[in-house]
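Can't attach files on this board, so I'm pasting raw text. These are the components:
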Amino acid sequence: AQSVTQPDIHITVSEGASLELRCNYSYGATPYLFWYVQSPGQGLQLLLKYFSGDTLVQGIKGFEAEFKRSQSSFNLRKPSVHWSDAAEYFCAVGRPGGYQKVTFGTGTKLQVIP
Amino acid sequence: DGGITQSPKYLFRKEGQNVTLSCEQNLNHDAMYWYRQDPGQGLRLIYYSQIVNDFQKGDIAEGYSVSREKKESFPLTVTSAQKNPTAFYLCASSIRDRDQETQYFGPGTRLLVL
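---
Top answer:
Structure tokens for the assembled complex are below.
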């Protein structure tokens, strides 16, 4: 079974500063990896996904993530944070091979200060 | 305009009452999912369905029931057997390209107990 850990429950950054949200996974083979964002009281929006190929993945809203097999990580980054990025971010891991259960992390809440 | 709709946005349940949450998608996705979200616990899978007239239990199916009579619809009933139903409920559907599956989410329904 796969698992995913988001070690930071809450992160605060200044507007304009860079951002990195950590995600570590456990899975016996190459997983499928996702980052979602959730604004308060809303559903989850897909930011980006990794299935195979280039380990640096570009997503929407200026986000990117890098798959590092040696570190079992898929950290999310943004070079300059905007106040509208304040939200909760979820990393998720899935198994290749069809309609399979996706396991979600517990989320990292991002606060952006002026 | 394609997407996933959930209704109602807020739902109140009295003790001993069954309530049904609606989820509809017009994305022509085969698979649909129900998740429960509690603060600090991420998303937990309740039920999922890969095809019409078939569904499987997830990690926390007790006290819930579903049906999948149409491809577009996957309603969730929270029964009186669910003793702690207060949560945010998220419906998702997914598309599969070969063995690569991506889930997309609806806006959610918040269930509160009176």
